[in-house]
Amino acid sequence: MTVLDARALNRATLARQHLLKRSNEPVAQAVAQLCGLQAQEPQEPFTGLWSRLSDFKPAQLDDALIGRTVVRTHLMRRTVHLVAADDAVAWRARHDAMLRQRVLGTYRQELAGIDLDELAAAGRSVMADEQPRTMTELVQAVEDRWPGPPRRVLGELLVAALIPMAQLPPRGLWQQTAGVRNLPLSSWLGRDIDPLPAAGSHPDDGDPVGRQLLRRYLAAFGPAAGADLRAWCGLAGLPAAVKAAREELVAFRDERGRQLFDLPDAPRPHPETPAPVRFLPAFDNAILGYHDRSRIIDAPHLGLSVAGHRTVLVDGRVSATWTVRDQQLRISPLRALTAPEREAVHTEAQELTAFLDSGIADIRLDPATPN
């Protein structure tokens, strides 16, 4: 079985994430191809798309959100993602159990004894008038029946798990600050969530929605192991999907001996393919979308990927962090950069400052930070 080293896996990820070469895809199509962008920080996806798409303009994402081809919703890992509307409808039911379990796992004591189906029905009844509500407004409408749990806990359960919700614009629009107003996805998109197939109705299909998720994940992140797939979406029960799709996939091993799966015709560039400097936003799925992130980030820096640090890819790997503060774009290398690398980082930083359009007057590239 062919062994793929970290550099080969890195170039495959970069190619599929549009980080090896910017794509000309329309925004909604790119969001779908990427299987969504993590978006709990509302402005971060704009940088993520700028680094991936040619001539990207913030108004293009604004138009997709306002036009309802892209939607903000809780989905993978119970985090807010930007996803294509079609994917939100197709994937949400498969995520229901995980979303409930994750809220209950966090607030098990506070939610003890609550009938989740009864609470969900009450919440849907309130939202049936199709009026957007904040989480606080929704909780106020039902809390007389459930006075025990803290409002925040009850609200998270309702909007992040029990009722498939969209977070409406202007939340998430370019350079706008707006609170979260929720509306059921079915009301916002004008169509119902796709139900899961009845148990036993397709005994040979082995979790058809999970199987679709597997294919889409590999197209955006492969080659990858089953553990990587689960780390990306947070779902249980995926081995059945992998087993059902096994004959459609090709297999490799990584340097640790893990078995990796991939789509037969997916791009796997030569490991020595040059990789340009790219600036990534906080919580970018190119890093977070794996259980084993060694293809893109070194072990000493793994904490950066979950702490909300914005990162810079140099030769395809996380090699610096970046911040914008007091009209300065500051870049802090995590290793010594060569003179050509520093020049390439500075050049891309100049392009980023023009895109951000936030009055940045200075670019500072620090010396390397010791490990």
Task: Write structural notes for this entry.
InterPro entries: AlkZ-like. This is Winged helix DNA-binding domain-containing protein. It comes from Streptacidiphilus alkalitolerans. Keywords: DNA-binding. This protein has 371 residues and is of the alpha+beta class. Helix content is 39%, strand content 15%. The chain has helices at 6-16, 27-33, 44-50, 58-66, 85-106, 116-127, 135-142, 151-162, 185-189, 208-221, 226-233, 239-245, 285-288, 339-356, and strands at 3-4, 37-38, 70-74, 80-84, 165-167, 182-184, 250-254, 259-262, 278-280, 310-314, 317-325, 328-333, 362-365. It has a five-stranded mixed beta sheet with strand order 9-10-11-12-13, covered by helices on one side. The two termini are 35 Å apart.
Question: What's the short version?
Answer:
The chain has 371 residues and is of the alpha+beta class. It has 14 helices and 13 strands.
Which features does this protein show?
371 residues, 15% strand, alpha+beta
Number of strands: 13
If you compute it from the alpha carbons, what radius of gyration comes out, rounded to the nearest whole angstrom?
A: 21 Å
Could you give the order of the helices and strands? EHHEHHEEHHHHEEHHHHEEEHEEEHE
Helix content: 25-40%
Report the β-strand fraction as a percent range.
15-25%
Structural class: alpha+beta
